[in-house]
Amino acid sequence: MTSRAPLKITVIGTGYLGATHAAAMAELGFEVLGLDVSPEKIAMLERGETPMYEPGLEELLRRHVAGHPGASERLRFTTSYEEVAEFGDVHFICVNTPQKHGEYACDMSYVDSAVESLAPLLRRPALVVGKSTVPVGSAVRLAARLTELAPAGEDAELAWNPEFLREGFAVEDTLHPDRIVVGVRSEQAEQRLREVYASPIAEGSPFVVTDFPTAELVKTSANSFLATKISFINAMAEVCEAADGDVVKLAEAIGHDDRIGKKFLRAGIGFGGGCLPKDIRAFMARAGELGASEALTFLREVDSINMRRRAQMVELARQAVGGTLLGTRIAVLGATFKPDSDDVRDSPALNVAGQLHLQGAQVTVYDPKGMENARALFPTLRYAPSALEAARGADVVLHLTEWREFQQLDPAALGEVVATRRLLDGRNTLDPAVWRKENWKFRALGRPTA
Ligand SMILES: NC(=O)C1=CN([C@@H]2O[C@H](COP(=O)(O)OP(=O)(O)OC[C@H]3O[C@@H](n4cnc5c(N)ncnc54)[C@H](O)[C@@H]3O)[C@@H](O)[C@H]2O)C=CC1
Ligand SMILES: O=C(O)[C@H]1O[C@H](OP(=O)(O)OP(=O)(O)OC[C@H]2O[C@@H](n3ccc(=O)[nH]c3=O)[C@H](O)[C@@H]2O)[C@H](O)[C@@H](O)[C@@H]1O
């Protein structure tokens, strides 16, 4: 790693994380080559189209993808590992690390496969940087594998650089991260990563240098803390329901204490997505393997509080329609796990919709950006082209993902098309007074019934 030429960067795995990272690296001025095993994804990216909905990403791609009028041409894509190995000085691994089927543990097969594909082709000095979220201990194992397989031997070095971006804000979070964490084993690796992140560092992003296990643990503990905060407020919602208190007021009031803070205290049907749920489970599984399972038993509770909130929403819907769901018509507003994303992985909204469907309700779903992904995952649900159409003839309307569009719904207009004016707010972002004024029976998780 002694070359002085401008760094060339590759990004392996161009999903939510990798596509954003590749475009952001081009924006920072590097020449970038992105690789994925999916030729369809690569074909889309080459056309400057995003395989997922992420605000601002398409614009960024088009500013840099070769072949677009006025583009910097610093960003290209391929499916060839040979090309990637030949091209790059720094290779970022951004492949998926899902939950294993039927187990809590993380499925490392995609990361392993990426390293096994790349390493034997590395003939010149290179830094391989893991970004995927992995169980602690993975980097040590992969570093040994890299040295073993790479013709460049010890000149092919590993580093771990976990990612903290949020979907919906991925571009902003990547260009202006609130911290950069690197696990390294050499001064050279640290310097190379400082070079990569020179602009965010210059803008004030703290740069934390540590060892492999700590870098891996920073990521899983950060997500565990966020999940714990959400389940804490959802536990308070359960108590509010029992005592007829208001969890929204409670969150606002405790949040005024700087030590607690206002963020991540939105009670509702809980957390989902491709990260928090699987990350806390993988963390528990890994702690068990390390003989430290007792340290994380609280995460089991965090997980079960979270799943109970989905069940409670199903129960409230059952009560709202008079005790039995069979044959009732339910409108579900929202399918994605959060607004401003098309991601439906472990979405609480779709999970609730699926449970209602299984119990005999006729469920019609509308989501501004997640319809295609929702249909692919839950083909047996009904789908409508607008909130109004989903609500037509409904016995109860469920608000399950807090898209801005739903905050602007007109209770009077929606009231004209439903069978009965009943609304359940699973995200606590609708104003009960506004809906009740239009004669809606309005209930929300953790809020007073009247
Ligand atoms: N989605 C997010 O907001 C964030 C995700 N992460 C972590 O980043 C990693 C990736 O997550 P996502 O981007 O959401 O997943 P994703 O599923 O959207 O993307 C992963 C991509 O890797 C590709 N891939 C799989 N095996 C491959 C291989 N052997 N070689 C090349 N490409 C391969 C897949 O085709 C897919 O396009 C996970 O570990 C996740 O926990 C971390 C921070 C944020
Ligand atoms: O590892 C990851 O992939 C990422 O996981 C989360 O990001 P993300 O999954 O995009 O979404 P969040 O904004 O964290 O929301 C996660 C879930 O929690 C729910 N949530 C969030 C906040 C809150 O107060 N209440 C609440 O129920 C959201 O609706 C959503 O379902 C973390 O916030 C990121 O820092 C991390 O990089």
Automatic annotation (TrEMBL):
Record GO biological process: polysaccharide biosynthetic process; UDP-glucuronate biosynthetic process
Binding site for substrate: 164-167, 219, 264-268, 272, 338
PANTHER family: UDP-GLUCOSE 6-DEHYDROGENASE TUAD
Gene Ontology molecular function: NAD binding; UDP-glucose 6-dehydrogenase activity
Residue ranges annotated for the UDP-glucose/GDP-mannose dehydrogenase C-terminal domain, each copy included: 331-432
Keywords from the named record: NAD, Oxidoreductase
UniProt-listed SUPFAM superfamilies: 6-phosphogluconate dehydrogenase C-terminal domain-like, NAD(P)-binding Rossmann-fold domains, UDP-glucose/GDP-mannose dehydrogenase C-terminal domain
The protein's name in its UniProt record: UDP-glucose 6-dehydrogenase
Binding positions (NAD(+)): 36, 41, 97, 133, 167, 278, 345
EC class name: oxidoreductase
Pfam families the record matches: UDPG_MGDP_dh, UDPG_MGDP_dh_C, UDPG_MGDP_dh_N
E.C. number: 1.1.1.22
Pathway: Nucleotide-sugar biosynthesis; UDP-alpha-D-glucuronate biosynthesis; UDP-alpha-D-glucuronate from UDP-alpha-D-glucose: step 1/1
Catalyses which reaction(s): UDP-alpha-D-glucose + 2 NAD(+) + H2O = UDP-alpha-D-glucuronate + 2 NADH + 3 H(+)
Family statement drawn from the similarity comment of this UniProt entry: Belongs to the UDP-glucose/GDP-mannose dehydrogenase family.
Presence of the UniProt keyword NAD in the record: yes
Active site residues of this protein: 275 (nucleophile)
